[in-house]
């Protein structure tokens, strides 16, 4: 994300829904222990985006993504950042997921529980 852009925090549900829509990964797979490349890549991107675009702690993100350790979430963030620097397609996908999550935020009302 450009540092010139205003940061808009998102709800975790918007990020996870955007990941599912753009990458086509089922929530059960995303939060499970599946290590298939497409699933683990989606999980890494989801964890990184949750850290960057929500106010969730590492521990909260780990719990949200299937009871993973906070150090696993730290790894997701580092890996996603490295992958985006090395691969423009991954960076473009990350931006697309962020755009979809922002659209979801703009079109879906916030529930009273949030």
Overall description:
- This protein has six helices and no strands.
- The chain has one domain (about 10-100): Chromosomal Replication Initiator Protein Dnaa, Chain: A (Orthogonal Bundle), CATH 1.10.1750.10.
- The mean pLDDT is about 90.
- By secondary structure, it is mainly α.
- The chain has helices at about 10-25, 25-30, 35-55, 60-65, 70-85, 90-105.
Write the layout of secondary structure elements.
Elements lengths: L11 H12 L3 H5 L5 H17 L4 H7 L5 H17 L1 H20 L7
Number of domains: 1
**Overall pLDDT score:** 92
Instruction: Report the span from N to C terminus.
Output: 26 Å
Nearest-angstrom radius of gyration?
13 Å
The assigned CATH architecture is: Orthogonal Bundle
CATH topology: Chromosomal Replication Initiator Protein Dnaa, Chain: A
The gross shape turns out to be: globular
SS content category: mainly alpha
Unreliable stretches (pLDDT < 50, length at least 5) are none
Helix content: 55-70%
Indicate the proportion of strand residues. Answer: under 5%
The named CATH superfamily: DnaA protein, C-terminal DNA-binding domain
Write the H/E string, N to C. Answer: HHHHHH
Largest sheet: none
CATH domain class: Mainly Alpha
């Amino acid at each position: 994300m450009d540092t010139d852009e205003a940061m808009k925090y998102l709800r975790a549900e918007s990020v996870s829904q955007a990941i599912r829509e753009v990458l086509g990964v089922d929530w059960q797979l995303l939060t499970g222990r599946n290590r298939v490349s497409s699933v683990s890549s989606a999980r890494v991107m989801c964890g990184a985006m949750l850290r960057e675009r929500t106010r969730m702690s590492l521990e909260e993100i780990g719990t949200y993504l299937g009871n993973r350790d906070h150090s696993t979430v730290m790894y997701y963030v580092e890996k996603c950042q490295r992958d985006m620097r090395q691969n423009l397609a991954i960076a473009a996908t990350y931006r697309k997921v962020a755009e979809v999550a922002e659209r979801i935020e703009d079109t879906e009302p916030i529930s009273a529980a949030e």
